[in-house]
Amino acid sequence: MNACAPQIAGLLTTYNRACLLPLILDGLLQQDLPQESYEIVIVNDGSSDQTRETLDYYSKSRTNIRVIHQYHSGLACARNLAVIASRAPLIVFLDDDDIASPNLLSAHLAAHKRYPAPNVAILGFTRLDEKIALIPLMHHVTEVGCQLFSYGRMKPGAMLTFREFWGGRSSCKREFLLTHGLFNPAFKFGCEDMELGWRLHKFGLQVVYEPAAISTMIRAISFDDFCRRSYRQGLSQAKFYDLHREQEINVYCEIDDALSLWPGARIIFKRLVDHVRRLDNYARDGSLPREGIPCDLTKALHDGYRSAFSLFRAKGINDEMARLNVNGNPKPSTHRHCSGRLA
Amino acid sequence: MYNILVAGVYLADRENSAAHIMSEFARTSRHRVEQRWIAISETGIREDLLPHTTRVVRTSTPKFRLLDELVENIGSFDFVFLSDDDIELDARFLDNFIAASQRMDLALSQPARTADSYIDHYFVMRMPGIMGRVTRFVEIGPVVCVRSDAYPAIFPFGNVGMGWGLDFIWPKLIQQSGLRMGIVDAFPVAHRLRKPLAYYLHSEANKEMQNLLAKRSHLSRAEAFIVQEIYS
Predict the structure, then answer these.
(1) What's the domain range around A275?
(2) In chain A, what's the furthest Cα-to-Cα distance?
(3) Distance (Å, rounded) from C-alpha B148 to C-alpha A183?
(4) Which of A71, B89, B131, B152 is deepest in the core (most CB within 10 A)?
(5) Which residue of B has its CA nearest to A80?
């Protein structure tokens, strides 16, 4: 291998987050590795804001940044492009709302040196920035309901499965992906990481937790944004199950649960969401009128968040399953143009 | 307008899409296309495939030996397409592909594979957000396009059997010739009819590849799977 070739690559995919990019890029450029030993590959997924200008400005100042602009194609496609455009044997998937700690890449690199087997991936640790950690919803989705991410029971060095091959905070060997599979472009948001993890686990994928590889999420998500996110997550869960109709995936993607939950719950859906939105507003701004707010606000809030996000996911799963049933199995025919032996 | 030769081998006794491929290549409105196909068949071939079939081989014969026959006397052609018989092409594939390939100045090129294709090397999977990429790897199939300035580097194939490993030799040859190679993502090919290696043993293919690579200068996988330039 070329002595000057980077040992590890940070792969950042981004879409319309120009306002956050300076913070994110500064973090990536302040890694404690020599500049020549790592590269940053950034794929701009067709952003319509100032992302292009921001990235072009940064790429001029450093030789180890490679910026690629693609037509908007979704997260899976952007990540795939970053994988093939990178040159380092180790690749770290990064999110565009997480700031890398100075040792993020070196911690991933060190972990891969401890676990050099091709099939071993590393899961880093993401925490919430203190400015957003106390927001009730952010606290809920990372510590209570754990819909965003949760490290609650993980022990350092723990051997994990495809379920923990989390995009935006995992690293792996590039060659392992080029040999066994990339992200499925059908996934525009959500589940693209787990779906790839599921396919890779059939080739022996193991995930090791490395809490020293730290990134910090700096973007707060609003209640309505998390509802939309949950709905899209549901769409992707159904898509995931449609590709791999196995019981383990059915359970993991909550398919049967969602299909039985939604028909009865849809009647109360809007009222419930409005109620939880009101609780969320009150929890964030105590000066609002207290009328109708339960005594035990904390419990009501957590129950409400859990129910609302669960229903949005269930709605997404139902909508996608209905679409798939109407359109039939989307897997392409392999016989469209076939001809065979002369009769 | 370019003069283009399409050269291919089809397994007439097995499920194939040769008729579709011949039809799509013939549909160009911008170029002059000649097609030369060899059929491998013990039983006979369909009449609609006859016009482009130059001969029928009765016994199983290594593909690249047959392709060497088909690419004799190609001096008048600007491009040669080598095609397998189990792919699907979109309408106007040829015109679009040539335009994209020329924009990137690729002497050796191929369409990316759709994500639902059988894929041996995921490096060639289609990247939907870009037009294409200059690479150090073009796989030996299912479609390969050779521009006339690369003929001396690529043809004849010689005794390479099924061609396993050629794709790690080609980048050396192309580089030595001062030319560029790459993959066109905007106009991909679907390769989902027959599983590659379905009719060959993996171990045999690997042995054949190692034998070939032992004799020729080539790149490693890590050296080959590199994107040098991207066109959006």
Answers:
(1) 223-326
(2) 82
(3) 36
(4) B89
(5) B127
